[in-house]
Amino acid sequence: MRETSVRPWTRPHDWAEVVLGVVAVLSPLVLETSTAAMWTLIVMGALVALDGLASLAMPGMVYGEAIQIVLGALLVLSPWVIGYTELTGAAWMSWVVGALTIIVGAAALPVANAAHSRTVGQH
């Protein structure tokens, strides 16, 4: 994993973030949602996926993993804040994808730190 963490497009944590984001973006196609729930899932999912792609392209970007953790927390909180807890499928999608995003982002943080420390000396 040490060699993989420095090479772009090879870190499994970041690929997991991209997949989680895409799942959130596509979920309104199969779940009952309100307009607010639909746009929350689409926008938050797109942000998660885009940040995952950025982390894949630039493995030494440590703040990308911190952003994933924040986005995951926002996704977990969104059913209560936006008010779609009564839409069970959409709410559970937010909670599960958000929690998994937090877990994957936290797991990727040490890997990104290691990649960053390896690339700092190369500048």
From TrEMBL:
This is SPW repeat-containing protein. The keyword Transmembrane applies. Keywords: Membrane, Transmembrane, Transmembrane helix. It holds the Pfam family SPW. The keyword Transmembrane helix applies. InterPro entries: SPW (IPR005530). The chain crosses the membrane at residues 66-84, 90-112. It comes from Amycolatopsis marina. Residues 13-106 form the SPW repeat-containing integral membrane domain. It comes from the Bacteria.
